[in-house]
Specification:
The complex is a heterodimer of chains A (241) and B (335). Helix content of chain A is 37%, strand content 26%. Chain A has 9 helices and 10 strands. Chain A has helices spanning 42-49, 72-77, 95-103, 110-123, 139-152, 169-184, 196-202, 220-225, 227-234, and strands at 2-13, 16-27, 31-35, 57-62, 65-66, 80-82, 157-161, 188-192, 205-210, 213-218. The radius of gyration of chain A is 18 Å and the shape is globular. Chain B is an all-alpha fold. Chain B is built from 14 helices and 4 strands. Classes of the chains: A alpha/beta (241), B mainly alpha (335).
Chain lengths: 241, 335
């Protein structure tokens, strides 16, 4: 069953077409990678799906319901969570506080929110940091906090926007295994990433966009060998024809 | 003795001192100063619900004080309705006005929201100054309203001694502090804090930020208006310049910023520090340099923002917990 279907998604900012008639879909339980050069429109796709921007044209269906134009908080409660490329922790509060805010999406009781938040932190091997002020975390831990907060809302679909950027190789490996474990728990994952090693290892399928248009789609190995993709990333002269 | 117990005892000590003061202080002047001190602590705590927790900077709360004061006073003078009932009606009226103001303005960011609230409060002041009658209600324009102290007693909310006023405002302050404590531990408190600090992240986590801010604004407007009625009954004379003035709006914000916005004790600490400054500068500079207290506030505010941007509550909390730690460490060695 398809959990997310994007049809002819177009987003204009003034005269600039950031996303141009894009189609994509994600099966339930799948990990779909979205890649493309800087400025290709990846984050705009995320923002449209997550309800930050209403699409200029096109339709987005999530769990068989049309969601284009619905608000982010509404979508979150309907099972769609996301992380931000530029992390946005509640910096003056503790890690536990941050995650509890996420847990309040599904409960009204403080004690229950605390328990759920502690559960998520334990799941991510993060409970030793629970009393640390979020503003004092390392970049790797901030990325982990973004995921923890999003997970506390118990999403069906999780949008991860460059959660591995800026991490050391060993931290990237940790993150890859965390994301794999999430999928085993039944969370569908839609991920934007620049680190090729990670996205190749992680994704079941990859969609490549450039200038807001889809230029390739398929298994990671297929996409990596695709002529258009190599051109987009490295320039004309590297394409072996 | 556990730490929790120690905290409870310390809090009980503060409460006993606060409630016991009128037994020791008999001077009407000092009682007057103390009543104003608790009144400002109350006003700032009410402000803090939206200005502290929701992370916006309202600079027009005097408008709600004015709505509360005028509502109860008009109802008492013209219809003989007890100011206690007028207080509630004023609170409800202020809530409605707060929501109407908040709906368009709470979506604005930073300085724009602050400016919009100033504009609203000033607009209201100018309006009241220029209206002698609003329909059947006599407002008396710039001359204001005087409440003749003919009937004293609980029903008319008028007393000859300052002591009843002292206890009324202290109970009101305790109430608003308890309410703030409750909110800060509830779901609403978490949502408000999150929305104030990182609105985009908060929205992505399922929070309708504009709505939570509006709820905070409604509660804050209601509580602020109650203080307006109290002020009217305490001074028995209100006029637009005194009660809907920018000075009052700014003083509330100053106290909050210096004491520490978004904390429970911050507004009380700020009032304890700044009210005496305000009163004594009025006593000593009142004739020669009126407005001196605002200049002093400005200097203190700059210093606090430079060295303790989160307000004085932070270093004081740190000192308290260090003191506590030392106390327990020495206790542990004794046993």
């Amino acid at each position: 069953m398809k959990i997310l279907e994007v049809q002819h998604l177009t987003k204009d900012f003034g005269g600039l077409r950031a996303v141009d008639s894009l189609d994509l879909d994600i099966e339930e339980g799948e990990i779909l990678g979205l890649i493309g050069p800087n400025g290709a429109g990846k984050s705009t796709v995320f923002n449209c799906v997550a309800g930050v921007f209403p699409p200029t044209k096109g339709h987005i269906y999530f769990r068989s319901e049309e969601i284009s134009g619905r608000k982010p908080w509404d979508l979150c409660k309907y099972g769609l969570a996301r992380t931000f490329q530029i992390v946005k922790p509640f910096a003056s509060k503790s890690v536990l506080y941050n995650v509890m805010v996420g847990a309040f999406a599904i409960t009204d009781k403080t004690s229950e929110a605390r328990e759920r938040a502690l559960g998520v932190l334990e799941y991510l091997n993060f409970e030793d940091r629970k009393d640390t002020r979020a503003g004092n975390l390392t970049i790797a831990d901030r990325k982990r906090l973004e995921i923890a907060r999003a997970l506390a809302t118990e999403p069906k679909l999780l949008l991860l926007d460059e959660v591995m950027a800026g991490l050391r190789p060993s931290e990237v490996d940790d993150m890859v295994s965390i994301i794999r474990r999430l999928r085993e728990q039944g969370v569908t994952i839609f991920v934007i990433e620049h680190i090729m090693r990670a996205i190749m290892a992680l994704s079941d399928r990859v969609v490549v966009i450039q200038f807001g248009q889809k230029i390739a789609e398929g298994l990671p190995q297929q996409v990596a060998a695709d002529e258009n993709v190599i051109k987009a990333y490295l320039g004309e002269e590297y394409a072996v024809s | 003795m556990t730490r929790e117990k120690f905290n409870t005892i310390a809090l009980a000590g503060v409460v006993i001192v606060a409630f016991g003061l009128p037994l020791v202080v008999h001077s009407a002047t000092y009682l007057h100063i103390l009543v104003l001190l608790w009144l400002y602590a109350y006003l700032t705590s009410s402000w803090n619900l939206v200005g502290g927790f929701a992370g916006v900077l309202p600079l027009g709360h005097a408008a709600f004080v004015g709505i509360g004061a005028y509502t109860s006073t008009v109802l008492w003078l013209q219809y003989g309705i007890s100011p206690w009932i007028g207080m509630l009606i004023g609170g409800l009226l202020a809530t409605i006005v707060g929501i109407i103001i908040g709906l368009p303005t709470l979506k604005m960011r930073g300085a724009y929201f602050a400016l919009a609230t100033i504009a609203f409060a000033e607009g209201l002041r100018v309006m009241v100054e220029n209206i002698d009658r609003l329909g059947p209600f006599v407002l008396n324009g710039p001359r204001g309203l005087q409440i003749p102290p003919l009937e004293t007693g609980l029903y008319s909310f008028m007393f000859i001694s300052k002591v009843p006023y002292y206890y009324i405002i202290l109970v009101m302050l305790s109430g608003v502090l308890a309410f703030t404590w409750f909110i800060s531990r509830s779901k609403l408190g978490y949502l408000l804090n999150a929305g104030g600090e990182e609105p985009e992240a908060a929205m992505a986590l399922g929070i309708n930020v504009a709505r939570t801010k509006l709820i905070a604004m409604a509660m804050s407007s209601f509580l602020t208006a109650l203080a307006g009625t109290f002020y009217a009954q305490f001074t028995l004379y209100i006029h637009p310049k005194s009660i809907i003035s920018l000075d009052l709006s700014f003083e509330i914000a100053f106290i909050a910023l210096i004491g520490g916005r978004g904390s429970i004790a911050g507004p009380v600490l700020g009032a304890l520090l700044l009210r005496p400054v305000s009163d004594f500068s009025r006593i000593y500079f009142g004739d020669t340099l009126p407005g001196m207290h605002l200049i002093i506030f400005g200097v203190v505010l700059i210093l606090v923002m430079l060295f303790q941007p989160r307000g004085l509550q932070e270093p004081l909390t740190r000192i308290y917990s260090r003191l506590q730690a030392r106390l327990f460490a020495s206790k542990a060695m004794e046993t």
